[in-house]
Amino acid sequence: xxxxxxxxxxxxxxxxxxxxxxxxxxxxxxxxxxxxHDLIAPLFVYHGTNLKREISSMPxxxxxxxxxxxxxxxxxxxxxxxxxxxxxxxxxKDPLGHGAIHPQGIVQQAIRQIRQTAPDMLIITDLCxxxxxxHGHCGPLTTIxxxxxxxxxATLELLGQQAVSHAQAGADVIAPSGMxxxxxxxxxxxxxxxxxxxxxxxxxxAKFASAFYGPFRDAAESTPAFGDRRSYQMDPANGxxxxxxxALDLAEGADIVMVKPALAYLDIARRIKETFGVPLAAxxxxxxxxxxxxxxxxxxxxxxxxVLEMLTGFKRxxxxxxxxxxxxxxxRWLNQP
Length: 337
Ligand code: PBG
Fold this sequence. Notes:
The chain has about 325 residues and is an alpha/beta fold. Helices cover about 40% and strands about 20% of the residues. The site of ligand PBG has 13 residues, from helix 7.
């Protein structure tokens, strides 16, 4: 690639800085823009009543009871955040995670509550069992050759039921996060059979076994009681495999694919966008949020500038929509630059 040297040899008068002199010209030259339309705000819905509990490792983020959800939802709606992603933390957990499927389950109740508060809000629900199982893994367990692991196909059956239950409660988009083989196909089949052919699936397609999920597991009380998630989430070292995982999800009917986490995986996002050209989401996860908040609290970085730079970088990488705990702040900053 000798494009620039060749060009400058022929046109030695080219000076890139010329286009950076006037602020209005810099605006004209800007290739990527972050807008409020790009944002999806994750929310933690907790069992009980009258609860707004700050998550200590995620300053500014709270566990909310259903009866108080109107507060964050109204704030998000007023700021122009168009979508939320719901996580539920139920009162009771069991080996199969039954609470995830119940019509009066925590997420099902939250969906109805949000629909009342902000009828136009797009409601996306995270589909997984780790918050509902007493062992904290993403589906029921089985032991084969002395190794205990999530039972893939038993989980598929339950995921289908969970997806239909969320759709019946009024969810607009279903986002399966468990990284089970065949999960998108199983959920698509179950949704279609129940008449929900128009509910899209946003698949966590390239989800890595990441240390950046630590604060989330405090918030969602979903730390595995033993072992880790490396038999279902991906090895952070693998890029080709992320392309294969994404191809599978698309073949099974995923409408939107996701990369997670975001910051350390922007190469994966770019590869997915260039390979498939499909709608692409990225999850700016809890540990990424916590790092920014911690440094900003100490006065070591400028929070607003840092966050806007990160999220604009996601757009530049080819990401269409961003799941981020910064959503409310970002929307407010964009409204009053
Ligand atoms: C559930 C799930 C996790 C996250 C989103 N959905 C945790 C995990 O896989 O352990 C992490 C989100 C975050 O860190 O912000 N499977």
